[in-house]
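Mods, move this if it's the wrong board.
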Amino acid sequence: MNRLGVMLTMMALLATIVTVAQTLRPSEQASPSSSPQPGPTRPSGPLQQKLAPGLAALTDEVLYGDVWRRPELSPRDRSLVTVTVLIATGKPAQLAGHLGRALDNGVQPSEASGLLAHLAIYSGWPSVVSALEVNDQVYTTRKIDTTALRAVGRRLPSPASDAARARAVNDALAAVAPKFAQLTNDVVFDDLWRRPDLTPRDRSLVTIAALAAMGDDDQLEFYLRRGIESGLTRAQITEALTHLGFYAGWGRAAKAMTAVARTLGQ
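Not the wrong board. Structure tokens:
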């Protein structure tokens, strides 16, 4: 065999050896010692997955995999309900993420600011003041111009039913608590509810959510009727309360659902 033939034979033999060696050697991709490739981020986060895998499954598959995606209520409305519940029940530790999500879902900074003033009336000053630092952190991170929050627009008109509401407040409370009756009519309804930073529909939605979250279902009848008058539908209200069940608890949501059935019918 000439020199060229020998070289060709050796090269063919070497190629065969390399192929066999690669077949027998474990793949680096499949090696147990190699670093696993990161999977998609789950809403539950690593702490839930580590300490409460059952909770993590509910978070990923039910709360975010189903409820947040339901078309019966928009993501923006779901965010308004969620932020309302967290503030009204004094849970600011969860607020930053949900406030950021609300802004991503279309809630405007002026609306989030108006929500704080509104909830001060319905859930009390301490709950709202406890949320201020979180709002400030989120606005600062997002470079939101807070000077624009000071703008004051023209007050909205009162609904047609408001005169009857004011008379009912006076009839029920003026003799017993005249200052409370005056504040209810002049501050709560003639000022707060007429501010343009939230629409009457949105004020109704967050008021229903706040009262339900705090367990004040005996106060819901008036606001359910006002919500319908302001443009909410019964289906949107019940969907909002279904959503609320995951953030305020099933018992609070169930009590509010009973009020809906009693006020708006089955």
